[in-house]
Design a protein that fits this description.
The chain has helices at 3-24, 192-205, 224-230, 248-251, 271-279; strands at residues 28-32, 39-45, 48-51, 62-65, 71-80, 85-90, 114-119, 127-137, 140-141, 147-148, 151-155, 166-168, 174-179, 188-191, 211-212, 215-221, 236-243, 259-263, 266-267, 286-293, 296-303, 305-306. With 313 residues, the chain is α+β, with helices and mostly antiparallel strands.
C-alpha cells in the first residue's frame, strides 16, 4: 500500500467507526438502578431493555434515560445471575420510536477483528472504546452455573458504564452485551445468541431455573490410605466450607466439613466437575452424593432445587 492510499484509508476507517457508533447510539440507554452512577442498557427488542444483573441493583423505582434526554420508568421483568443479565420492560404506551439493535452471529467473529464497546451513563452522549476481539473460545459455564454459548473477550478500555453496553462490529451490528461481572480478569461479551435465550426465558418465567447445591467448596488432597481403603479414582475431592441449611445439600444432610467424593455417580475433584453434573440435571431431580465424614464413606440423596434471587441484588 502506498503512502497516499494509507493516508486515504485512515480517514475512511475513522468515518466508518463513527458511523457504526452513530447507527447503534439511539438504542443505547442509561439505566438508573443503582446509587450514584447509572449503568448502560440496550433496546434489545421493542419495549425491552437488557442490561447486566450486577449493575441493576434495584428491583423497583428503575428509570431509563434515552438519547433524546427523556426519562422513562421501567419494570424489572427478570434477572439471571448465572449469565449476569437483567431484563427491563417499558409500559406499552411508552413509544420509543427506536429500532432495536441488529445482532450478528458470533460465528462470524475472528480473533483480531476490530470492535467497538459502546455505552451510555447519561443523556449527554455515548462513550465508545475501540479495540479488537482478543480471544474466542467454546461454550463455557460461569461460576454461578450460567451457560454462555461462546467465550468472547474484547481488548477494549473499560470505562464507567461498560457493563450493560454493547460490543459492535464495524457495521454497527451487536455482537453481544459487555460485562465485567463474569470474570475477574476484565471484561467479557455475552454473545447475542445467549442474550436471546435468556431474554425469552425471563420474559416468560421471570427467572432461569438452574439446579444448585447451596454449598461453598474447596478442593483438598485425599490421603493415600483413604484412596486405597475406598478405591477412590481421584487424588482430590471437595471440602464443604459452608452449607446453607435450607438449600438442597443442607436438606439432604450434607454438613460442614464433609468431603464430597462423587455426585450422581461421577467423581468430583473440583467445582467444574460439580457444575458439569448439575448442567445435565434438572430442578426437582434426585441425585446421589458420596461423601467422607469422620474417615468413613457415606451415601446421601439430594433433591435439586433452584436458587431464588434476593430482592435488590
Amino acid at each position: 500500500m502506498t503512502e497516499a492510499n494509507a493516508n486515504n484509508s485512515l480517514p475512511a476507517l475513522s468515518q466508518s467507526l463513527a458511523a457504526a457508533v452513530e447507527r447503534v447510539s439511539p438504542a443505547i440507554v442509561a439505566v438508573n438502578a443503582r446509587p450514584r452512577v447509572p449503568t448502560s442498557g440496550i433496546v434489545w427488542r421493542d419495549g425491552i431493555i437488557v442490561s447486566t444483573n450486577h449493575t441493576v441493583r434495584r428491583d423497583e423505582e428503575i428509570t431509563i434515560t434515552l438519547a433524546d434526554g427523556r426519562w422513562l420508568p421501567a419494570t424489572l421483568a427478570g434477572r439471571d445471575p448465572g449469565t449476569d443479565l437483567a431484563v427491563l420492560r417499558l409500559e406499552k404506551d411508552q413509544a420509543l420510536n427506536i429500532d432495536a439493535v441488529t445482532t450478528i452471529g458470533d460465528d462470524a467473529l475472528k480473533i483480531g477483528n476490530l470492535a467497538l464497546a459502546v455505552g451510555r451513563v447519561h443523556e449527554r452522549g455515548v462513550t465508545a472504546s475501540l479495540g479488537i476481539v482478543s480471544n474466542l473460545g467454546d461454550k463455557w459455564r460461569t461460576r454461578r452455573g450460567g451457560e454462555i454459548d461462546r467465550l468472547i473477550r474484547p481488548d477494549v478500555s473499560i470505562f464507567i458504564g461498560f457493563s450493560g453496553g454493547v460490543l459492535i462490529d464495524l457495521e454497527g451490528r451487536a455482537v453481544g452485551i459487555n460485562t465485567t461481572g463474569l470474570s475477574r480478569g476484565g471484561g467479557l461479551t455475552i454473545p447475542a445468541s445467549t442474550v436471546n435465550h435468556v431474554v425469552d426465558t425471563l420474559l416468560v418465567h421471570g427467572h432461569v431455573a438452574r439446579p444448585y447445591l447451596g454449598v461453598a467448596m474447596q478442593p483438598v488432597m485425599l490421603p493415600a490410605e483413604l484412596r486405597n481403603k475406598f478405591n477412590l479414582p481421584r487424588e482430590s475431592a471437595l471440602l464443604m466450607l459452608s452449607v446453607e441449611a435450607e438449600a438442597p445439600a443442607g436438606r439432604g444432610g450434607i454438613m460442614l466439613g464433609d468431603v464430597l467424593l462423587a455426585l450422581d455417580g461421577t467423581p468430583v475433584a473440583d467445582t467444574d466437575d460439580v457444575q458439569a453434573v448439575l448442567s445435565r440435571s434438572n430442578v426437582g431431580q434426585t441425585i446421589n452424593a458420596t461423601i467422607l465424614r469422620g474417615g468413613e464413606q457415606r451415601e446421601t440423596i439430594l433433591t435439586l432445587g433452584h436458587r431464588t434471587t434476593p430482592k435488590g441484588k
